[in-house]
Design brief:
mainly beta; 2 helices; about 5% helix; about 20% strand
Length: about 450
Protein backbone atom coordinates (compact mmCIF):
# COMPACT_ATOMS: atom_id res chain seq x y z
CA UNK A 1 0.00 0.00 0.00
CA UNK A 2 2.86 2.38 0.73
CA UNK A 3 4.32 1.79 -2.70
CA UNK A 4 1.01 2.63 -4.37
CA UNK A 5 0.64 5.74 -2.28
CA UNK A 6 4.09 6.97 -3.30
CA UNK A 7 3.30 6.46 -6.98
CA UNK A 8 0.04 8.33 -6.69
CA UNK A 9 1.79 11.14 -4.84
CA UNK A 10 4.41 11.34 -7.57
CA UNK A 11 1.69 11.64 -10.20
CA UNK A 12 -0.03 14.43 -8.34
CA UNK A 13 3.26 16.23 -7.83
CA UNK A 14 4.01 16.02 -11.50
CA UNK A 15 0.60 17.48 -12.30
CA UNK A 16 1.08 20.30 -9.79
CA UNK A 17 4.49 21.24 -11.20
CA UNK A 18 3.26 21.03 -14.78
CA UNK A 19 0.28 23.23 -14.09
CA UNK A 20 2.30 26.00 -12.44
CA UNK A 21 5.72 25.89 -14.08
CA UNK A 22 5.61 27.45 -17.57
CA UNK A 23 9.01 25.91 -18.35
CA UNK A 24 7.77 22.32 -18.08
CA UNK A 25 8.00 20.59 -21.48
CA UNK A 26 4.87 19.45 -23.31
CA UNK A 27 6.37 15.98 -23.78
CA UNK A 28 6.45 15.48 -19.96
CA UNK A 29 2.74 16.30 -19.66
CA UNK A 30 1.88 13.97 -22.54
CA UNK A 31 3.89 11.16 -20.96
CA UNK A 32 2.20 11.41 -17.58
CA UNK A 33 -1.31 12.19 -18.76
CA UNK A 34 -1.65 10.34 -22.06
CA UNK A 35 -5.10 10.06 -23.67
CA UNK A 36 -4.59 7.24 -26.17
CA UNK A 37 -8.19 7.11 -27.46
CA UNK A 38 -8.59 10.94 -27.37
CA UNK A 39 -11.95 10.75 -25.61
CA UNK A 40 -11.01 13.46 -23.09
CA UNK A 41 -10.29 10.97 -20.27
CA UNK A 42 -6.63 10.44 -19.33
CA UNK A 43 -5.49 6.83 -19.59
CA UNK A 44 -4.90 6.41 -15.82
CA UNK A 45 -8.55 7.36 -15.19
CA UNK A 46 -10.07 5.81 -18.36
CA UNK A 47 -11.93 2.52 -17.75
CA UNK A 48 -11.20 1.72 -21.41
CA UNK A 49 -8.07 3.72 -22.31
CA UNK A 50 -7.66 2.51 -25.91
CA UNK A 51 -11.30 2.72 -27.14
CA UNK A 52 -13.18 6.00 -27.43
CA UNK A 53 -15.75 6.12 -24.54
CA UNK A 54 -16.18 9.63 -23.11
CA UNK A 55 -19.27 8.54 -21.07
CA UNK A 56 -17.22 5.84 -19.21
CA UNK A 57 -20.27 3.54 -19.02
CA UNK A 58 -19.64 0.47 -16.80
CA UNK A 59 -22.97 -1.35 -16.47
CA UNK A 60 -21.74 -4.21 -14.26
CA UNK A 61 -19.45 -2.01 -12.15
CA UNK A 62 -16.39 -4.20 -12.70
CA UNK A 63 -14.11 -1.24 -13.52
CA UNK A 64 -14.01 -2.15 -17.21
CA UNK A 65 -15.93 0.16 -19.54
CA UNK A 66 -18.84 -1.34 -21.43
CA UNK A 67 -17.09 -0.81 -24.77
CA UNK A 68 -14.21 -2.99 -23.60
CA UNK A 69 -16.09 -5.51 -21.48
CA UNK A 70 -16.80 -8.53 -23.67
CA UNK A 71 -18.85 -10.15 -20.89
CA UNK A 72 -20.89 -7.05 -20.18
CA UNK A 73 -24.52 -7.62 -21.03
CA UNK A 74 -26.13 -5.80 -18.12
CA UNK A 75 -28.60 -3.06 -19.07
CA UNK A 76 -29.08 0.02 -16.94
CA UNK A 77 -31.33 1.78 -19.46
CA UNK A 78 -33.09 0.90 -22.72
CA UNK A 79 -30.83 2.71 -25.18
CA UNK A 80 -27.57 1.58 -23.58
CA UNK A 81 -25.09 0.10 -26.08
CA UNK A 82 -24.00 -3.49 -25.42
CA UNK A 83 -22.09 -6.22 -27.28
CA UNK A 84 -24.04 -9.30 -28.37
CA UNK A 85 -23.64 -12.24 -30.70
CA UNK A 86 -26.43 -12.14 -33.27
CA UNK A 87 -26.76 -14.40 -36.33
CA UNK A 88 -23.14 -15.42 -36.06
CA UNK A 89 -21.87 -11.88 -35.95
CA UNK A 90 -20.79 -9.68 -33.12
CA UNK A 91 -22.98 -6.60 -33.09
CA UNK A 92 -23.09 -3.51 -30.96
CA UNK A 93 -26.75 -2.86 -30.20
CA UNK A 94 -28.96 -1.19 -27.63
CA UNK A 95 -30.55 -3.18 -24.84
CA UNK A 96 -33.89 -3.15 -26.68
CA UNK A 97 -32.44 -5.71 -29.12
CA UNK A 98 -32.22 -8.38 -26.42
CA UNK A 99 -35.82 -9.40 -27.13
CA UNK A 100 -34.49 -11.40 -30.11
CA UNK A 101 -34.20 -15.07 -29.04
CA UNK A 102 -31.22 -15.54 -31.36
CA UNK A 103 -29.22 -12.89 -29.55
CA UNK A 104 -26.70 -13.88 -26.90
CA UNK A 105 -24.63 -11.74 -24.61
CA UNK A 106 -20.97 -11.29 -25.39
CA UNK A 107 -18.97 -11.33 -28.62
CA UNK A 108 -19.06 -14.08 -31.24
CA UNK A 109 -16.03 -16.19 -31.93
CA UNK A 110 -15.00 -13.96 -34.87
CA UNK A 111 -15.61 -10.54 -33.44
CA UNK A 112 -16.10 -7.66 -35.90
CA UNK A 113 -14.81 -4.18 -35.20
CA UNK A 114 -17.81 -2.18 -34.05
CA UNK A 115 -18.95 1.29 -34.98
CA UNK A 116 -17.75 4.19 -32.92
CA UNK A 117 -19.99 5.36 -30.07
CA UNK A 118 -21.66 8.74 -30.38
CA UNK A 119 -20.54 11.71 -28.33
CA UNK A 120 -23.01 13.60 -26.07
CA UNK A 121 -24.04 15.80 -29.00
CA UNK A 122 -24.95 12.72 -31.06
CA UNK A 123 -21.91 13.02 -33.34
CA UNK A 124 -19.72 10.05 -34.30
CA UNK A 125 -16.02 10.58 -35.02
CA UNK A 126 -13.98 8.14 -37.08
CA UNK A 127 -10.67 8.13 -38.91
CA UNK A 128 -10.92 7.15 -42.58
CA UNK A 129 -7.73 5.41 -43.75
CA UNK A 130 -8.03 4.63 -47.49
CA UNK A 131 -5.56 2.66 -49.60
CA UNK A 132 -3.55 5.83 -50.09
CA UNK A 133 -2.77 6.92 -46.53
CA UNK A 134 -1.89 10.41 -47.77
CA UNK A 135 -5.64 11.05 -47.87
CA UNK A 136 -6.07 10.26 -44.17
CA UNK A 137 -8.99 12.30 -42.80
CA UNK A 138 -11.17 12.59 -39.73
CA UNK A 139 -14.90 12.29 -40.43
CA UNK A 140 -17.51 13.61 -38.01
CA UNK A 141 -21.27 13.22 -38.40
CA UNK A 142 -24.40 11.45 -37.25
CA UNK A 143 -24.76 7.70 -37.66
CA UNK A 144 -27.17 8.01 -40.60
CA UNK A 145 -24.78 10.39 -42.33
CA UNK A 146 -21.87 7.97 -42.10
CA UNK A 147 -23.52 4.94 -43.72
CA UNK A 148 -20.91 5.28 -46.46
CA UNK A 149 -18.30 4.24 -43.88
CA UNK A 150 -20.27 2.09 -41.39
CA UNK A 151 -22.25 -1.02 -42.33
CA UNK A 152 -25.66 -1.82 -40.87
CA UNK A 153 -24.08 -4.42 -38.57
CA UNK A 154 -21.79 -1.77 -37.12
CA UNK A 155 -18.63 -2.92 -38.91
CA UNK A 156 -16.54 -0.56 -41.01
CA UNK A 157 -17.00 -0.51 -44.79
CA UNK A 158 -13.29 0.18 -45.05
CA UNK A 159 -11.49 -2.28 -42.71
CA UNK A 160 -8.64 0.14 -42.05
CA UNK A 161 -10.93 2.81 -40.60
CA UNK A 162 -10.72 3.41 -36.85
CA UNK A 163 -12.76 5.16 -34.17
CA UNK A 164 -11.86 8.65 -33.05
CA UNK A 165 -9.94 11.44 -34.76
CA UNK A 166 -7.09 10.57 -37.13
CA UNK A 167 -3.49 10.59 -35.95
CA UNK A 168 -0.33 10.10 -38.00
CA UNK A 169 0.58 7.16 -35.77
CA UNK A 170 -2.35 5.23 -37.27
CA UNK A 171 -0.46 4.96 -40.56
CA UNK A 172 2.99 4.49 -39.07
CA UNK A 173 3.94 8.13 -39.41
CA UNK A 174 4.50 11.09 -37.10
CA UNK A 175 3.74 14.79 -37.16
CA UNK A 176 7.05 16.24 -36.00
CA UNK A 177 6.01 19.91 -36.01
CA UNK A 178 2.45 19.33 -34.74
CA UNK A 179 0.79 21.21 -37.61
CA UNK A 180 -1.68 18.41 -38.32
CA UNK A 181 0.15 17.28 -41.47
CA UNK A 182 1.96 13.93 -41.34
CA UNK A 183 5.65 14.09 -42.12
CA UNK A 184 5.34 12.02 -45.31
CA UNK A 185 3.13 14.75 -46.78
CA UNK A 186 4.67 17.71 -44.97
CA UNK A 187 7.03 19.67 -47.18
CA UNK A 188 8.54 21.27 -44.08
CA UNK A 189 8.16 18.69 -41.26
CA UNK A 190 10.06 20.90 -38.81
CA UNK A 191 8.14 24.10 -39.50
CA UNK A 192 4.52 24.21 -38.28
CA UNK A 193 3.86 27.31 -40.42
CA UNK A 194 4.74 25.63 -43.73
CA UNK A 195 3.55 22.30 -45.03
CA UNK A 196 1.93 22.57 -48.47
CA UNK A 197 3.24 23.04 -52.04
CA UNK A 198 4.07 26.67 -52.72
CA UNK A 199 6.57 26.78 -49.87
CA UNK A 200 9.26 24.74 -51.57
CA UNK A 201 12.35 24.18 -49.48
CA UNK A 202 10.70 26.18 -46.71
CA UNK A 203 12.44 29.33 -48.02
CA UNK A 204 11.88 29.28 -51.80
CA UNK A 205 8.73 29.70 -53.90
CA UNK A 206 7.00 27.04 -55.97
CA UNK A 207 4.72 29.14 -58.16
CA UNK A 208 3.22 26.25 -60.15
CA UNK A 209 2.83 24.05 -57.05
CA UNK A 210 4.57 21.03 -58.62
CA UNK A 211 6.84 20.48 -55.60
CA UNK A 212 9.86 21.79 -57.53
CA UNK A 213 11.40 25.12 -56.44
CA UNK A 214 11.11 27.95 -58.97
CA UNK A 215 14.90 28.21 -58.97
CA UNK A 216 15.14 24.57 -60.13
CA UNK A 217 11.94 24.36 -62.18
CA UNK A 218 12.51 22.88 -65.65
CA UNK A 219 9.07 23.79 -66.96
CA UNK A 220 7.60 26.79 -65.07
CA UNK A 221 3.83 26.82 -65.02
CA UNK A 222 3.58 23.05 -65.54
CA UNK A 223 4.07 19.94 -63.45
CA UNK A 224 7.76 18.99 -63.69
CA UNK A 225 6.93 15.54 -62.32
CA UNK A 226 4.76 14.66 -65.35
CA UNK A 227 7.02 13.18 -68.03
CA UNK A 228 5.12 10.43 -69.86
CA UNK A 229 7.90 9.49 -72.31
CA UNK A 230 10.69 9.65 -69.73
CA UNK A 231 12.94 11.90 -71.81
CA UNK A 232 13.63 14.32 -68.97
CA UNK A 233 11.37 17.01 -70.45
CA UNK A 234 8.09 17.58 -68.56
CA UNK A 235 4.97 17.12 -70.71
CA UNK A 236 4.10 20.81 -70.49
CA UNK A 237 7.34 21.80 -72.25
CA UNK A 238 7.78 18.70 -74.42
CA UNK A 239 6.79 19.19 -78.10
CA UNK A 240 6.34 15.43 -78.30
CA UNK A 241 5.24 14.22 -74.83
CA UNK A 242 4.66 10.64 -76.01
CA UNK A 243 7.89 10.19 -77.98
CA UNK A 244 11.24 10.01 -76.14
CA UNK A 245 13.17 10.96 -79.29
CA UNK A 246 10.66 13.77 -79.97
CA UNK A 247 11.16 14.83 -83.63
CA UNK A 248 14.37 13.10 -84.70
CA UNK A 249 14.18 14.14 -88.37
CA UNK A 250 13.24 17.75 -87.57
CA UNK A 251 10.22 17.91 -89.86
CA UNK A 252 7.87 19.19 -87.18
CA UNK A 253 6.13 15.83 -86.76
CA UNK A 254 6.67 13.80 -83.57
CA UNK A 255 8.27 10.41 -84.14
CA UNK A 256 5.25 8.53 -82.83
CA UNK A 257 3.14 10.15 -85.58
CA UNK A 258 5.79 10.39 -88.31
CA UNK A 259 4.65 8.94 -91.66
CA UNK A 260 8.14 8.91 -93.15
CA UNK A 261 10.84 8.78 -90.40
CA UNK A 262 14.11 10.37 -91.47
CA UNK A 263 12.45 12.52 -94.14
CA UNK A 264 10.30 15.62 -94.34
CA UNK A 265 6.67 14.55 -93.98
CA UNK A 266 5.52 17.85 -95.49
CA UNK A 267 7.39 17.46 -98.80
CA UNK A 268 4.96 15.67 -101.12
CA UNK A 269 5.53 16.82 -104.71
CA UNK A 270 2.76 14.76 -106.31
CA UNK A 271 0.24 15.32 -103.50
CA UNK A 272 -0.55 11.63 -103.06
CA UNK A 273 -0.23 11.74 -99.27
CA UNK A 274 3.13 9.90 -99.31
CA UNK A 275 6.13 12.10 -98.44
CA UNK A 276 8.79 12.20 -101.17
CA UNK A 277 11.30 10.38 -98.99
CA UNK A 278 9.04 7.32 -98.79
CA UNK A 279 7.40 7.61 -102.22
CA UNK A 280 8.83 5.31 -104.95
CA UNK A 281 7.54 7.80 -107.52
CA UNK A 282 7.54 11.24 -105.89
CA UNK A 283 6.44 12.97 -109.10
CA UNK A 284 3.50 10.66 -109.85
CA UNK A 285 0.38 10.60 -107.75
CA UNK A 286 -0.44 7.24 -109.34
CA UNK A 287 3.18 6.12 -108.87
CA UNK A 288 3.66 3.11 -111.18
CA UNK A 289 0.15 2.51 -112.51
CA UNK A 290 1.08 -0.36 -114.85
CA UNK A 291 3.30 -2.09 -112.26
CA UNK A 292 6.33 -2.49 -114.49
CA UNK A 293 8.75 -0.91 -112.03
CA UNK A 294 8.94 2.35 -113.97
CA UNK A 295 7.27 5.48 -112.57
CA UNK A 296 4.55 6.94 -114.77
CA UNK A 297 6.57 10.14 -115.27
CA UNK A 298 9.34 8.08 -116.93
CA UNK A 299 7.18 5.38 -118.52
CA UNK A 300 7.83 5.02 -122.27
CA UNK A 301 5.02 2.54 -122.71
CA UNK A 302 2.19 3.31 -120.25
CA UNK A 303 -0.01 0.32 -119.58
CA UNK A 304 2.69 -2.11 -120.71
CA UNK A 305 5.97 -3.52 -119.46
CA UNK A 306 8.75 -1.04 -120.20
CA UNK A 307 11.36 -3.63 -119.30
CA UNK A 308 10.41 -5.99 -122.15
CA UNK A 309 12.66 -5.01 -125.08
CA UNK A 310 13.77 -8.09 -127.04
CA UNK A 311 15.61 -6.20 -129.78
CA UNK A 312 17.34 -4.00 -127.23
CA UNK A 313 16.58 -0.81 -129.16
CA UNK A 314 15.41 1.06 -126.09
CA UNK A 315 11.75 0.88 -127.06
CA UNK A 316 9.51 -1.56 -125.10
CA UNK A 317 8.21 -4.34 -127.35
CA UNK A 318 4.57 -3.51 -126.64
CA UNK A 319 5.09 0.07 -127.78
CA UNK A 320 7.52 -0.58 -130.62
CA UNK A 321 6.64 1.82 -133.45
CA UNK A 322 5.79 -0.22 -136.52
CA UNK A 323 5.05 1.10 -139.99
CA UNK A 324 4.30 -0.72 -143.21
CA UNK A 325 7.27 -0.85 -145.64
CA UNK A 326 7.87 2.28 -147.72
CA UNK A 327 9.97 3.13 -150.84
CA UNK A 328 10.40 6.21 -152.99
CA UNK A 329 12.37 8.03 -155.71
CA UNK A 330 13.54 11.51 -154.79
CA UNK A 331 15.23 12.48 -158.07
CA UNK A 332 12.84 15.41 -158.57
CA UNK A 333 10.77 15.76 -155.33
CA UNK A 334 11.55 15.16 -151.65
CA UNK A 335 10.79 16.32 -148.10
CA UNK A 336 12.94 19.30 -147.22
CA UNK A 337 11.90 19.57 -143.54
CA UNK A 338 9.11 18.79 -141.09
CA UNK A 339 7.97 20.51 -137.94
CA UNK A 340 6.04 18.60 -135.23
CA UNK A 341 4.89 21.08 -132.61
CA UNK A 342 8.19 22.79 -131.80
CA UNK A 343 10.48 20.01 -133.11
CA UNK A 344 12.00 20.92 -136.49
CA UNK A 345 13.70 18.21 -138.57
CA UNK A 346 15.73 19.38 -141.60
CA UNK A 347 15.89 16.06 -143.38
CA UNK A 348 16.63 17.10 -146.99
CA UNK A 349 16.87 14.52 -149.75
CA UNK A 350 17.11 11.01 -148.21
CA UNK A 351 17.07 9.16 -151.55
CA UNK A 352 13.38 8.26 -151.34
CA UNK A 353 12.95 7.16 -147.67
CA UNK A 354 13.94 8.63 -144.30
CA UNK A 355 13.53 6.85 -140.93
CA UNK A 356 13.17 9.49 -138.22
CA UNK A 357 11.31 7.42 -135.62
CA UNK A 358 13.87 8.45 -133.06
CA UNK A 359 12.34 11.92 -133.16
CA UNK A 360 9.54 11.92 -130.57
CA UNK A 361 6.89 14.44 -129.63
CA UNK A 362 4.73 13.91 -126.51
CA UNK A 363 1.05 14.72 -126.97
CA UNK A 364 -1.79 13.78 -124.62
CA UNK A 365 -5.13 12.37 -125.67
CA UNK A 366 -7.34 15.23 -126.79
CA UNK A 367 -4.25 17.40 -127.21
CA UNK A 368 -3.21 19.24 -130.40
CA UNK A 369 -0.49 17.99 -132.76
CA UNK A 370 0.79 20.76 -135.04
CA UNK A 371 2.22 19.36 -138.31
CA UNK A 372 3.98 21.43 -141.02
CA UNK A 373 5.82 20.12 -144.11
CA UNK A 374 8.10 21.91 -146.57
CA UNK A 375 8.65 20.08 -149.89
CA UNK A 376 11.88 20.11 -151.91
CA UNK A 377 11.86 19.93 -155.73
CA UNK A 378 13.71 20.64 -158.95
CA UNK A 379 12.66 23.29 -161.42
CA UNK A 380 9.90 23.16 -164.01
CA UNK A 381 7.06 21.65 -161.86
CA UNK A 382 3.81 23.25 -160.85
CA UNK A 383 2.96 21.47 -157.58
CA UNK A 384 3.37 18.29 -155.56
CA UNK A 385 1.02 16.18 -153.43
CA UNK A 386 1.64 16.18 -149.69
CA UNK A 387 -0.06 13.76 -147.25
CA UNK A 388 0.39 12.83 -143.57
CA UNK A 389 -0.91 9.73 -141.74
CA UNK A 390 -0.99 8.75 -138.05
CA UNK A 391 -1.39 5.12 -136.93
CA UNK A 392 -3.64 6.08 -133.99
CA UNK A 393 -4.38 2.46 -132.96
CA UNK A 394 -0.82 1.20 -133.53
CA UNK A 395 -1.93 -1.68 -135.78
CA UNK A 396 1.03 -1.06 -138.14
CA UNK A 397 -1.05 0.30 -141.02
CA UNK A 398 -2.74 3.59 -141.88
CA UNK A 399 -6.01 2.25 -143.24
CA UNK A 400 -8.32 3.04 -140.32
CA UNK A 401 -10.76 5.93 -140.25
CA UNK A 402 -9.23 9.21 -139.23
CA UNK A 403 -5.61 8.08 -139.77
CA UNK A 404 -5.19 10.37 -142.85
CA UNK A 405 -4.66 13.62 -140.96
CA UNK A 406 -3.66 15.94 -143.83
CA UNK A 407 -3.50 16.05 -147.68
CA UNK A 408 -3.01 18.77 -150.27
CA UNK A 409 -1.08 19.98 -153.32
CA UNK A 410 1.36 22.87 -153.21
CA UNK A 411 5.00 23.84 -153.52
CA UNK A 412 4.91 25.92 -150.33
CA UNK A 413 5.15 24.99 -146.67
CA UNK A 414 1.83 23.61 -145.60
CA UNK A 415 0.29 21.82 -142.64
CA UNK A 416 -2.46 21.66 -140.06
CA UNK A 417 -3.28 21.31 -136.36
CA UNK A 418 -4.93 18.01 -135.55
CA UNK A 419 -6.54 16.85 -132.29
CA UNK A 420 -5.32 13.52 -130.94
CA UNK A 421 -8.33 11.13 -130.60
CA UNK A 422 -9.35 10.20 -127.05
CA UNK A 423 -9.23 6.53 -128.04
CA UNK A 424 -5.69 6.75 -129.42
CA UNK A 425 -3.13 4.16 -128.33
CA UNK A 426 -1.29 4.98 -125.08
CA UNK A 427 2.28 4.80 -126.26
CA UNK A 428 4.35 5.59 -129.31
CA UNK A 429 2.62 5.64 -132.68
CA UNK A 430 4.02 5.98 -136.18
CA UNK A 431 3.56 9.21 -138.15
CA UNK A 432 4.14 8.95 -141.96
CA UNK A 433 4.69 11.94 -144.29
CA UNK A 434 4.69 11.57 -148.09
CA UNK A 435 5.61 14.01 -150.90
CA UNK A 436 4.81 12.79 -154.45
CA UNK A 437 4.54 14.42 -157.86
CA UNK A 438 1.40 12.40 -158.55
CA UNK A 439 -1.68 11.65 -156.50
CA UNK A 440 -1.22 9.82 -153.13
CA UNK A 441 -3.82 7.07 -152.69
CA UNK A 442 -2.31 4.89 -149.94
CA UNK A 443 0.26 5.28 -147.18
CA UNK A 444 1.74 1.86 -147.89
CA UNK A 445 2.02 2.00 -151.72
CA UNK A 446 5.46 2.68 -153.25
CA UNK A 447 6.16 6.35 -153.88
CA UNK A 448 7.05 6.42 -157.61
CA UNK A 449 8.12 10.04 -157.89
CA UNK A 450 8.79 11.46 -154.43
CA UNK A 451 9.84 10.65 -150.84
CA UNK A 452 8.49 9.01 -147.67
CA UNK A 453 9.52 9.73 -144.06
CA UNK A 454 8.44 7.96 -140.83
Amino acid sequence: MKTLALIFFALCLAFFVSANDGLTKHSEITTVFADSDRDGIYDHKDNCPYVYNPKQDDSDGDGIGDVCDDDDCGCSYENQWIYVCQDGRTRRVTCSALTDNNTFCGPCEEQKEEACPASPDGKITLCHIPLNPDNLRTIVGKREQLNKYINEDGSFVYPKDQCGPCACEMIGDVDSDGDGVCDRKDECPDNPEKSEAGMCGCDDDDSDKDWVCDSEDICPGWNDKRDDDGDGIPNGCDPCPNSPSNDSDGDGVCDDQDICPGHDDFKDSDGDGVPNGCDPCPLDASDDSDGDGVCDSNDQCPGFNDLKDNNQNGVPDDCEVGCCPATGNSAFEWIENTKLNDVLTNSGDDGGYGDYRHVRVRVSKGGILSLWVTPGYTDNICEVSIAAYADWNNDKDFDDEGELIFSGRTLEETGTDVQVPYDAFMGEICLRIIVDYGRITSACDPCIDGEVED
